[in-house]
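Quick one:
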Amino acid sequence: LYEGELPFTSCSQAVSSGFTAPIFTYDHSAGSASVVSLGVYRRANLGAGRFPLEYEGDIFFADYYSGWIRRLSWDGALWLLQSALGQPTATEWATGAGQISDALVAPDGSIWYVRQSLNYAPNTGQVRIIRYTGTLDAPGNPAVALEFSPARPNPSHGTTRFAYSLPASGRAELVLMDPSGRRVRTLVDGSMGAGPHDALWDGCDDRGSRLAAGLYFARLSTGGAVRVQRVALTQ
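Output:
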């Protein structure tokens, strides 16, 4: 009955309500015709190929015929195309990846994908890998640091997402403070496992009242390590 968010039926008796809309759509221009999901990115605790913490929870997808890979990120209200340094275009996270039929996130955090063919030629299929080439963590490296990804969105007038990764299991605390250093909201306070986590802030204090627009500080601490970042709240 629908293709993406557009109705696609000539039957007057068809049910046309009660459906859940897709989180993102794109048109069929420039030869695009078949969306292929590469999955939700779940970051490995360790691994030479894993991407930075801000990729946690993002969605990768490709078009079989167009050859691009795109990345969706949640901004607290909508799934939007997310850009990264070095992308070939403003919307395409990668290009040159036509005829993708399947993909997965490997245990080391890299992305493996299958190309059924190269330019549709027979017997030319490949298995390829995409891995991060910045600062690497070798498997088994004990010196893994506490990671606190930049808040998204920032500034925010709705929900702000904080993504972080703990180097080891233990007690963790994530709080919001005003410029005077007064604690206004506690988002996390308790024992947690090692690895990636996230928390959402709705712009309210611990009593549920909306805080005034302005600058706030998010403070993450665990095992003696502390990370602080600034967050702007708008009305």
